[in-house]
Amino acid sequence: MTLGALGVAERIQARRPQMSDAMAKIAALLVEHPTAPLEMSITELAAQAGTSAATVTRFCRLIGYSGYVPLRVGVAADVGRGDVHASWHADIGKSFDPDDTSSDVLHALLGSHTRAVQATASSVDLEQMDRIATAIATCRHLDIYGIGGSGLMADELQSRLYRIGLSAHAWTEVHAGLASAAIQDETCVALAISNTGRTTETIQMLGQANSSGAFSVALTNRPDSPLAAVAHEHVVAAAPEEYLQPDDLSAKHSQLFLLDLIYLLVAQQDFARTTTKLAASAMAVLPHRKSVRTRSRTQ
């Protein structure tokens, strides 16, 4: 097949049957992040894909470029010649069109979010979740790691577990997270959240906690991700690849669904402690909540 007239995505698709496993990882990265070569050096892209710079070079040659620089030129050309609708579909996804009615958007969005949660629920390993909940409920300390949007998920879980008496801390900055991970031990649990499972800082923090002896858990939507590889347990949050990957909110809803399940299973482990702590915290904030007043209507 002649590749000269094809864009980068088309070249990747055409040569996929000939790719090794390592090259397939690069292909998957470029399909998900088409502009990655414009933002990363060859070594950075190789690290992100979990392969080597030499493999990236071989990948470039396989799809018809003499090296990484010509690949970057090809990516830039694709970006430059893409029309408005192509850009929309690349960033937002094929499930939505700019001319859709608000009703169309609503129903497509509802379908996407519903499928994400249903797919997540259908694949839950309840024995695994019970193991994780027991480990968290009985640990000396829980570290939770997440960067960016996943950091918000980490903060949410930490806040809820802390309120029912668990010693937990959410780390969303790698230096502080690594320092904490280094002092964990076999009495601790470390949980890392990353949609793609390829966020370098999150991988580093969980890897350090694992090396320190903590029981490590990864929550991602990629079973074969580098983050999953460094964890004792891996929990999958399904995310339909229809729009705004890896930042779409359907992925966040899948994560929240699993984190909510973990929280409730942990809360069940010590019912007396949970209810006592919740009651105490509710009473503490009660004076800061306005009472609901009813007004009688004059007939």
From TrEMBL:
<keyword id="KW-0238">DNA-binding</keyword>
<feature type="domain" description="HTH rpiR-type">
    <location>
        <begin position="6"/>
        <end position="82"/>
    </location>
</feature>
<dbReference type="Pfam" id="PF01418">
    <property type="entry name" value="HTH_6"/>
</dbReference>
<keyword id="KW-0805">Transcription regulation</keyword>
<dbReference type="GO" id="GO:0003677">
    <property type="term" value="F:DNA binding"/>
</dbReference>
<dbReference type="InterPro" id="IPR000281">
    <property type="entry name" value="HTH_RpiR"/>
</dbReference>
<dbReference type="InterPro" id="IPR009057">
    <property type="entry name" value="Homeodomain-like_sf"/>
</dbReference>
<dbReference type="InterPro" id="IPR047640">
    <property type="entry name" value="RpiR-like"/>
</dbReference>
<dbReference type="InterPro" id="IPR046348">
    <property type="entry name" value="SIS_dom_sf"/>
</dbReference>
<keyword id="KW-0804">Transcription</keyword>
<dbReference type="GO" id="GO:1901135">
    <property type="term" value="P:carbohydrate derivative metabolic process"/>
</dbReference>
<dbReference type="InterPro" id="IPR036388">
    <property type="entry name" value="WH-like_DNA-bd_sf"/>
</dbReference>
<protein>
    <submittedName>
        <fullName>MurR/RpiR family transcriptional regulator</fullName>
    </submittedName>
</protein>
<feature type="domain" description="SIS">
    <location>
        <begin position="132"/>
        <end position="272"/>
    </location>
</feature>
<dbReference type="InterPro" id="IPR001347">
    <property type="entry name" value="SIS_dom"/>
</dbReference>
<dbReference type="Pfam" id="PF01380">
    <property type="entry name" value="SIS"/>
</dbReference>
<dbReference type="GO" id="GO:0003700">
    <property type="term" value="F:DNA-binding transcription factor activity"/>
</dbReference>
<dbReference type="InterPro" id="IPR035472">
    <property type="entry name" value="RpiR-like_SIS"/>
</dbReference>
<dbReference type="GO" id="GO:0097367">
    <property type="term" value="F:carbohydrate derivative binding"/>
</dbReference>
